[in-house]
């Protein structure tokens, strides 16, 4: 609105203050009289200059507030979307996370949200502003002179259609460039996270070539995009300048013929600019809006996923640690049993070990126990209560699981051990670390328990990480603890000392040990040998080493390996 006033002031100044045309508006007539009359203003043209500067400043201030408000709204909306998205992702079931690609999820939380933010803060305001401007400017132009308005708008439909068609086509180039960038980022991310593998396999040359190839691809696709855009901006600039030329030429011809005033020509030459550039921009804006709609769809997909109900109407019984599997059957995919009719029981406080070849279903048993998946048939009872009837969050609070590849946060070792309960006393942290045989290692670090893990500090060995994870789990005094191959990276002596310390605890938990190592499972009260989702042998170590079968074979192989290792040590 403020922008539209300036050309009108210039027109009135040229035609009615410098020239002698009638002013044609009662309001302006009165305003000019109030300031001092036409003759006074003609002698003091600086007043008009000051007025124009004032309008420009006012426009700047209004623009500032408009943009600040739009950005604030967009930033707040983006923050709210990110918060809700993160919340939703946290609530999605384990099954979803197993299948989802982390990179894709991250992209949805960052760049898709940013696309929506840009749409809200720039494009939406731009389109609304442009439409408003088009309405007002066209109305003012038609009121000033219909013939001149039609000439000034002659090429506008062409510019709009050209812009729209071009940007619909160039959308593919935009997408290609985006995808090439995503591929480049993936290569970079994989290389940095897998740097150990790269170095160990002396794969640097291959990695450099792969990066170079993706980098070139990204450059070429972006270059093509820039070329297309340059072509568009050049061609549309050409049409725009032709339109401005048409307005000035026709305006001048009609002014010379006395059909319109010079001030009107001046006003039209400004108005035509106000119409042309937003229309030229509109095609681009509409394409970007298409991108925002795609992003909204991608985010919506996450919100449409069913979340995991952690706190249903299920019960929260006191858990002592008696476990009973009765004919449990489970499959991830239809008709492919992973756990096939398994039955066994563990008394509270005792230890059961599960051993078996890879893919035999050991970890799946643990997932069922933690209710990360629900079994298809059969029954799992905890202290006589059906597991499916117990609150999921309650189950996970009471069953501590140590995974084979534990994830440690970029925090201090102390904070990592206290993860589930930050208020726990340091005395308890040290006790748990001693049981997990990691206390001495931690003490040997310069900053002890305050040593940062990972990127900001010491990089722990695989075995040290496993032991920190063991301390983190046992500190919670869960009635049931599961070690899912989580002693694999510690040496046999440390393994023995951890198991001894666990056995000597006051409140002994029910313990399930999953391992490939005979020495780790040998002291368990019962050992279950799993193959292809079925129990093929069970009993204690003594019984199993004297029974023909997988356990005996594993025992013999691992024993001969041990002898060989001792031989090597002796001769070294
Ligand atoms: N999310 C999943 N979707 C489909 N199949 C799966 C899934 N997770 C595991 N499986 C399959 O289920 C079978 C049992 O896997 P599981 O991880 O329980 O075996 P495991 O005995 O723990 O193996 P490992 O000793 O190698 O850890 C395997 O054939 C595996 O491919």
Automatic annotation (TrEMBL):
Pfam families noted in UniProt: ABC_membrane (PF00664), ABC_tran (PF00005)
GO CC field: plasma membrane
SMART domains, alphabetized: AAA
Zinc as UniProt keyword: no
Location in or out of the cell: Cell membrane
Membrane topology of the entry: Multi-pass membrane protein
ABC transmembrane type-1 domain span: 1-291
Keyword tags: ATP-binding, Cell membrane, Membrane, Nucleotide-binding, Transmembrane, Transmembrane helix, Transport
Lineage top rank: taxon: Bacteria
Example GO molecular function: ATP binding
Transmembrane segments: 45-65, 124-142, 148-167, 229-254, 260-279
Name of the protein: ATP-binding cassette subfamily B protein
